[in-house]
Specification:
This protein is α+β, with helices and mostly antiparallel strands. It contains 5 helices and 7 strands; from the N terminus they run E-E-H-E-H-E-E-H-E-E-H-H. It has a 3-stranded antiparallel beta sheet with strand order 2-1-5. A two-stranded antiparallel ribbon has the order 3-4. Strands 6-7 form a two-stranded antiparallel ribbon.
């Protein structure tokens, strides 16, 4: 069964899930006996949008892989393609704040009283790293580097 992309709906459709776009029209016994091919007609039970265009299974799989990698699927008039997501500044800032919060939470253990007691310099480096995360410019591209233990 076929795969489809609808720019209007902004998504993928599959005939196995959403119903075949075309079905065979009923035939008379005479047409069947004569071996005539049935006429294909629109399926009234199909929920694939009318603007949907057929795409190959390879294109479908490639686009899904690219979408999983963080790209967005868009249609600029020639069918679907993947491109880097264009984020508005507010969304970008929110994403950076969430990443910063995850990094802070992941390093909370370094500041507990009973951790890194034998390595005060490393504990101090972690404290400086955490402060750099709190002071992070949300519009900048760079991130502070986490400390590493000396071997």
């Amino acid at each position: 069964m076929g795969k489809f992309w609808s720019a209007g709906a902004g998504g993928f459709f599959d005939e196995d899930i959403h119903g075949a776009k075309l079905i065979a029209a009923p035939q008379t016994a005479r047409e069947i006996k004569a071996g005539k091919r049935p006429k294909m007609v629109p399926n009234p039970d199909c929920i694939i949008p009318t603007d949907a265009v057929a795409i190959s299974v390879q294109t479908y799989n490639r686009l899904l892989d690219e979408q999983s990698a963080g790209l967005e699927i868009v249609d600029l008039g020639n069918g679907p393609l993947a491109r880097t997501r264009e984020l508005d500044p507010e969304t970008r800032q929110t994403m950076r704040q969430r990443q910063r919060d995850r990094l802070l939470a992941a390093s909370d253990w370094t500041q507990l009283g009973d951790t890194l007691v034998d390595e005060p310099q490393l504990k101090s480096a972690w404290a400086a790293y955490r402060q750099a995360l709190r002071d992070l410019d949300m519009d900048a591209e760079d991130w502070p580097a986490a400390p590493v233990a000396a071997d």
